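Hey L., structure's done. Input below.
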Amino acid sequence: MAKRILVVDDAMFMRKLLSDILTKAGFEVVGEAGNGQEAYQKYKDLLPDLVTMDITMPEVTGIEGVKMITADFPEAKVLMCSAMGQEGMVIDSVKSGAKGFIVKPFVPEKVIAEVQKLIG
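Output:
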């Protein structure tokens, strides 16, 4: 059974790109969200094996989204996505409950390696 992933990013293009990388690697993308609040709602509904979460999003940021998800689901595995130069935000997201991070622009091999590290 394929591992189930929720892809969260405010840019549809980035969600599509990441979904394609994950699907080609044999994972099932079970949902998408455009901000941290949507991510929390979808997480509750879908209970995926992993969430990829962009840090910088409108309304509810990725860091706030991680806090919301891990407050109710401490076992949740969240992989943060950040652009180069956001190291401080990555540290904040890990402190907030994220289990790892990947850097944009996405390198498919690195994305898959990080996902497999978390959910094999």
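DSSP finds five helices and five strands in the chain. The chain has a mean pLDDT of 95.

-- N.
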